[in-house]
């Protein structure tokens, strides 16, 4: 005898690894309180799509130069307060690459503010770069 339980109100789905996965609408409701609420729902929806892709190929502009290409990748976390593991890799400056972790909602907020939907090579907001290059190092030094 097998039991068949339908997904709760269409909110949950089951992926190939037999774990529950929230639908896009449910993810949006879950992250909204941490990421600007309903006023930024379009940006949140786009950022959650990026989050599910677990990778952002971009370029940090530099005045008078081509800029610095980067690849930001992260683990598969789905809850706003879960700690997500991230890595930023610079193909032309591998020694500048680094790993870090932060609450998932913070990454989603930065993805909401990135220029991924404006040009061909997206950039992340200044707040991301300030944190990953300066503030995160200060936190490690203080530990």
Q: Could you characterize what this model shows?
A:
This protein has 143 residues and is of the alpha+beta class. It has one domain. Helix content is 33%, strand content 22%. The protein has a 4-stranded antiparallel β-sheet with strand order 3-4-5-6. It is globular, with a radius of gyration of 17 Å. The N terminus is likely disordered.
* Shape field: globular
The rounded distance between the terminal residues' Cα atoms is 55 Å
Would you tell me the overall average pLDDT? 83
Radius of gyration: 17 Å
State the helicity in percent bands.
Answer: 25-40%
Give me the side-by-side strand order of the main sheet: 3-4-5-6
Main sheet summary: 4 strands, antiparallel
Q: Any idea how many domains?
A: 1
Task: Give a topology summary.
Elements: E1 12-14, E2 20-22, H1 24-31, H2 41-53, E3 55-60, E4 68-74, E5 83-89, E6 98-103, H3 104-112, H4 126-142
Antiparallel strand pairs: 1-2, 3-4, 4-5, 5-6
Helix pairs in contact: 1-2, 2-3
Tag the structure with descriptive keywords.
alpha+beta; 143 residues; 6 strands; 4-stranded antiparallel β-sheet; two-stranded antiparallel ribbon
Q: Brief overview, please?
A:
With 143 residues, the chain is α+β, with helices and mostly antiparallel strands.
